[in-house]
Amino acid sequence: MNKPADLPIARIDFNDEDSNTSPNPTFDSILQTRLSRRRMLGGGVASAATVMLGSFGLSACGSDAGSGPSATPLAFSPVPKALADVVAVPSGYKASTIYALGDPLDVATAAYKNDGTDTAYENRAGDHHDGMEWFGLDASSRPSATANDRGLLGVNHEATTDAALSSFFLHANGGTSTLPRPAAEIDKELMIHGVSVVEVRRGASGDWGYVVDSAFNTRYTTLTPMELSGPARGHPQLVTKYSLDGTRTRGTLNNCGTGKTPWGTLLTGEENWFGYFFRNATDDTARGSDKSVTSLRRYGRNAGATSRHGWESGGAADRYARWNNSKLGASTDGSDDYRNEMNGFGYVVEIDPYSKSTAARKRTALGRMAHESAAFGKLEAGKPVAVYMGCDARNEYIYKFVSTANWSAADASPLDRMATGTKYLDSGKLYVAKFNADGTGQWIELAMSNPQIAGYSAYAFTDAGDIAINTRLAADALGATKMDRPEWCAVNPANGEIYFTLTNNSNRRVSPSTSTQLAPDSANPRVYTDMKGTASQQGNPNGQILRLKEGAAGNTATLFTWDVYLFGAQADAPAATVNLSNLTGDQDFSSPDGLVFSQATGLLWIQTDDGAYTDVTNCMMLVGRPGMVGDGAKRTLTYPRTGLADLVVDTYVGKAPTAETLKRFLVGPKGAEITGCCETPDGKALFINIQHPGENTLQADVTDPSKYESRWPSNAGYGAGSRPRSATIVITKNDGGTIGT
Ligand code: FEO
Ligand code: CA
Ligand code: CA
Ligand code: CA
Predict the structure, then answer these.
(1) Which H helix or E strand runs over 40?
(2) Which structural domain, as residue segments, surrounds residue 522?
(3) Contact yes or no for 484/524 (Cβ under 8 A)
(4) How many angstroms separate the alpha carbon of residue 230 from the centre of ligand 4?
(5) Which of 91, 160, 227, 461 shows the smallest number of beta carbons within 10 Å?
(6) Is the CB of 372 under 6 A from ligand 1?
């Protein structure tokens, strides 16, 4: 869920965490080290930077060879911006709903009535479908990399449409908005979060559907036992009443972006998990204001924090008590309460979609943050594997994990998928990105061997497990670059370049006046005002898509170059300061979030989770044919400041898209974000998620369908009742062709 500027705080703040007050370098201090990219690369400046660039690949040296878009043409008419309560796709395409909130995952569970009386959500599709991956099945129900008509979808169920505690569409009368909340309501809400695995098939008619009686169907909820894996496994900070040795936890939460491993498992990122926990107002004192308090504050939980749904109020049973993250017991190690429960969340979780009896593993080596997607760098036999990740909150960071193990092609189809995950994802180096004003950047390792971490004054790190749990603090210590909310990342199969959506940032200011506001810098260069009706939206309301090119060492490179592939903007915004990518009305977008390269076509799917341009259009999906880092030009933005010299920011803008290289492909129903994107290997079926249609409906109106913001997908003929439901759709081309071409 994004942050619509005009919604009351109670509706937004659990997704809008804002805790990075670390004194990292400001743009002004970076500016002092600035050299122009051309001067550095020309070799005319004797500096450390010049020497470092020796390891760069060709494109950093200005070669534009092969810089044109490589994918096939976009042979469809762009979809216009719209505010209708439908899923709109281009002429010649069809979009069909196949799997919505509440759909039963076995034949013993009743059909979904969609009137607030349904139960047994542990056997149903969860809510708020988000990231999603495809896992093919052959006719003998074995994993297949080539099957095009049968597979499993691993689907994140991020959250639920709520107001004032209650997931109101799930309860007949809208539910209880005061504490304590009834256990029966909480029990439903505990089950609609997490992940589902569901089998889908294409029928003889060519139409797709999910398979209600598939033996593969399963759910991972907030209560599913999971293993903690990697450097933090068994760490004292993971000891709870449930796991006395700190090796296990229950459940996964606020699952947002996904990834698919080269060995055929699902990675799911835990994003805004902290918002579900309660802390006593006196908890800092109860903890003796020790370093756990520093950690809790850095992860968005100040003492006295209320929880998103009040789950801790359901009663004395463990399933409710665990959501109170306060120190309540007398033990010194946390074995008699849930003071450490939050430390079991915030990871990339690996799930084997083909084996529901295999325990999911939280891969702590990839760090603890507001995880989004996890994208693998290009694989090279005999070289380490790289995983790229973003931490989605205002002013947070971009990360890279590099495995200790070297890639072996035999691991692409292993007998034991989870053991293969352990091989590549439990041991390695974790880096955070620092972007320089000259178009270069560095990956800085988060390790005890770095004196900036070992000697960090704000938090006394003890070991690698401590870094894995308190990754944000370690990144603060290194002066990483604070970004405009990193969401998904994706790796271009054509050249290995890494794309990151930076969705927006309401905290950018030319002259920061609070500890969480930040001046623009090269990679996050825009500060402007965008009007939404009469509301004035400040900072960077529309976001951008950044891209990185690793140095010659590829996955293990510690230096990279970057530019901005696209700046989001409305088409009529000023081209000199806001619409820097010259977007037209057929291409303009705001708040990019989901980002996926098609392995079949090389096309880039861009999805939005917007609250800024929604006075003009519902959220959307576009498709692009990107070039490469450096295919555009340097631009200089000049910001006047009262009583100070102008703030001058150089940035690097990718080649402006044309009508042939970027088009709007889909516009969603009212109140929904567009997210999740996977395909059959032939690229002829594209699966997309429509999340939270009708989320701006008032809780008080839950029994009056005429007042719903959206009635999708029932208004498109899918399912009973008229309450809006998050759902998976499949897009096919009427002529049976490849999507987007
Ligand atoms: Fe769940 Fe950052 O979007
Ligand atoms: Ca978002
Ligand atoms: Ca506007
Ligand atoms: Ca997202």
Answers:
(1) helix 37-42
(2) 7-15+32-106+123-733
(3) yes
(4) 26
(5) 91
(6) yes
Specify the pLDDT at position 70.
56
pLDDT reported for residue 23? 77
The alpha-helical segments, DSSP class H, found in 234-304 are: 283-286, 291-298
Residue nearest to atom 1 of ligand 1 (CA): 256
Residues of the chain with pLDDT under 50: 1-13, 26-67
Ligand 1 atom with minimal separation from the 609 CA: 3
Looking at the CA of 594, name the nearest ligand: 4
Tens digit of each residue's pLDDT (9 = 90 or more) over 480-533: 999 999 999 999 999 999 999 999 999 999 999 999 999 999 999 999 999 999
Beta carbons within 8 Å of 476's beta carbon, 6+ residues apart: 20, 22, 24, 298, 456, 458
Regarding the beta carbon of 650 and ligand 1, being less than 6 Å apart is answered no
Cβ(392) to ligand 1 under 6 A? yes
Q: 283: which 2 tokens?
A: 């908890």
Prediction pTM value: 0.93
- CA–CA dist 16, 77 (Å, integer): 36
Q: Is 438 in the pocket of ligand 1 (CB under 6 A)?
A: no
Helix H, strand E, coil C: the string for 91-126 is: CCEEEEEEEECCCECCCCCCCCCCCCCCCCHHHECC
Task: Pick the ligand that lies closest to the CA of residue 535.
Answer: 3
Pairing of strands 361-363, 225-229: parallel
Tell me if 661 is assigned to some domain. Answer: yes
CA of 244 to the centre of ligand 4 (A): 34
Ligand 3 centroid to Cα of residue 4, in Å, is 12
> How many structural domains comprise the chain?
1
pLDDT of residue 273: 98
The predicted pLDDT at position 24 comes to 67
Measured distance CA(420)–CA(415) in Å, rounded: 9
Q: Is residue 116 part of a domain?
A: no
Tokens of 583: 């977007």
Residue 477 dihedral angles phi and psi, to the nearest 5°: -60, -25
Task: Please report whether residue 629 resides in a domain.
Answer: yes
Does residue 158's CB lie within 6 angstroms of at least one atom of ligand 1?
A: yes
Please answer whether residues 152 and 137 qualify as being in contact, where contact means their C-beta atoms are separated by less than 8 angstroms.
Answer: yes
Q: In angstroms, rounded to a whole number, what is the distance separating the alpha carbons of residues 471 and 113?
A: 43
Q: How far apart are CA 621 and CA 605, in angstroms?
A: 7
Q: Is residue 26 part of a domain?
A: no
How far does residue 531's CA lie from ligand 3's centre (Å)? 4
Token output for 578 = 């806001």
> Residue 18 has what pLDDT?
78
For 602-629, give one letter per residue: b (16+ CB within 10 A) or e.
bbbbbbbbbbbbbbebbbbbbbbbbbbb
C-alpha 315 – ligand 3 centre gap (Å): 46
Closest C-alpha to 485, from 375, 392, 361: 392
Q: What is the predicted pLDDT for the residue at 21?
A: 85
* pLDDT digit string, tens, across residues 441-452: 999 999 999 999
